[in-house]
User: Fold these one by one.
Assistant:
Number 1:
Amino acid sequence: MACYDGRLDIVKYLIEHGADLNITNHYNNSCLMIAAYKGAGHLSVIKTLVHAGADVNHSTKTQSTPLRAACYDGRLDIVKYLIEHGADLNITNHYNNSCLMIAAYKGAGHLSVIKTLVHAGADVNHSTKTQSTPLRAACYDGRLDIVKYLIEHGADLNITNHYNNSCLMIAAYKGAGHLSVIKTLVHAGADVNHSTKTQSTPLRAACYDGRLDIVKYLIEHGADLNITNHYNNSCLMIAAYK
């Protein structure tokens, strides 16, 4: 409870009087995990626990770790401290999500965390059970800053998920606010005509959402108007049907 509330004075007192750092709850959460997950104001508690011997890589029932919790909350200070004290960047949870994936998926405010993870050696192309990647997560959220950074640091534009959706498809399908992401992907070499398992394309996705700006851009950059999906529907049919 003291770790949960960030009560450093109580944490120190209890440790000095024999409190066991490694007792876990029914979710297998350690005291360190609780302190990391709560975020704001708890770095001092985390430092105290680590100094007293807490395992920085202890994982929960869902294979989450203190580092993953800090990445989820965008706590750069905690992320840096845990990495400096041996936190494993590559432990994944039950969905095979890496710490980098968690930081990218959360979107706003996490670019600094992503930079720290990549600098420390995180795999920018690690994929989840559904073959999603940090770049795909950033494209989904329309985070141009993260998209640019990941591409500059080796992210593969052409890794597809279990539906064979490319990063460009994800950016086009989401619609509003993602034209800048689409331009960045195309400029970096993304295939404008890559099709999914149902033979859908980025152009079809933009037609479905009525995004004229994206439709124009994709056509100007070589999108094929005549590719049809598994129902033999053309882009024009999709636009008319909507």
Number 2:
Amino acid sequence: MDTERRRGHAAARATDALRSAIVGGELLPGDRLREEPLAADLQVSRNTLREAMRILAHEGLIVHEANRGATVTVPTVESIRDLYRVRRTIEVYTLREADPAHPAADRMRAAVDAALAAAATKDWRAVGTCDLTFHRAIVALADSPRLDAVLQSLLAELRLAFGVVDDPQALHAPFLADNERILDLFAAGASDRAADELADYLGRSEAFLIGAQKERSLS
């Protein structure tokens, strides 16, 4: 029993580490996941690594291909549309119903400030990470562990969608001011206007990523 428990903990750690690498932009769409070096880096057995990969494959973050092994998922137009459909359902509703005095609003502000600082140094991958943190904080306004768990997987998929864009500055720069404006409206008690701004933001972001994916598929 203890051995099984330790193996389960190791698989969970490996799963979290790989998912975090995707969310952090360290693993990009189409990257091959070579078992031997990955197992060594994560300090787990190859069997444990395979269990972690099975979990991430179930989440749609990894695919197994014949004669190629495991690779990081390349988002499709359909998967991007579905991702944003879920995001609108969760994020817009949460922001509209939330209390501006909720502690998660401070996390939203910290994410905006960190994104502006990263943009000043042209660290656009960091800007993308701050953007994900901002939207995670929006969902945290709901005080729902279930929604938090759903969002964890969604954000990993979103980072993969970011990865189809060749110019991260073109993706992230236009939305810096949007996040700040959404937060200012929310903090001022104008939750409906903030939610409407967020819905518009998500629509433009979705259109940008779909356009990038279509260009990628033609190249």
Number 3:
Amino acid sequence: MQIDPKVIECIKSGLKSTAESDAHSYWSARVEKGRGQAASPYYEAMKIKDMEVLFCYEQFDELTLLHLREFNKKKLISLETDIVVDHYKEENFDANKPEQLSQQHAEDLMAWMRNCLGQKVTPRLDSHPSMITVLEMGAVRHFLRTQQLSHSVEERAQVLQPTLEINAGHDLIKKLYVLKDSNPDLAQMLLEQIFDNAMITAGLNDDPRPMISRLNDLLTKAMEKH
């Protein structure tokens, strides 16, 4: 694949302050223009590394970086891939945050979520309620686009085997913990919506139409006391 020299200059400019000692350069796709870091749960999950990140806004930006793989003798790694393979960020629970669920409550909730979704669930985030991780997610997105698969979200999840990362301190997640016992039906709808939202944010589900009925049910439930 031949890369336009203008694209090379853009990459060079975007990564100009990457430290010489760094073995990798990081990039992130599916970022909304004007929002940058705040719009990306994937950036949040690895910001502790304090690394420079090249943000991509167009579909073909991601495809270019997937093919390029290396630049200035540094491996180009997406934030999503780094999160999956980073052995220093295993499923550790930070018990020093008083605003979040206790470790026992978080573990109970994640066990319930795993049982409902049939997917792996781990704690990791600080601001966003949830995100999806899949190994080599950029390549997976490209595969889904080129194959134009019409699988349902459930079928895609079964094929992709995604992990749902949650924020045990987010209001949605804390409310979900309460609802799973007090109102199981509503909790199930909320969990499915959280999962679908994360799949859409990850670019693994571009058709939100199947969840419109559930959204209407959730809105109806939300208005029952008003």
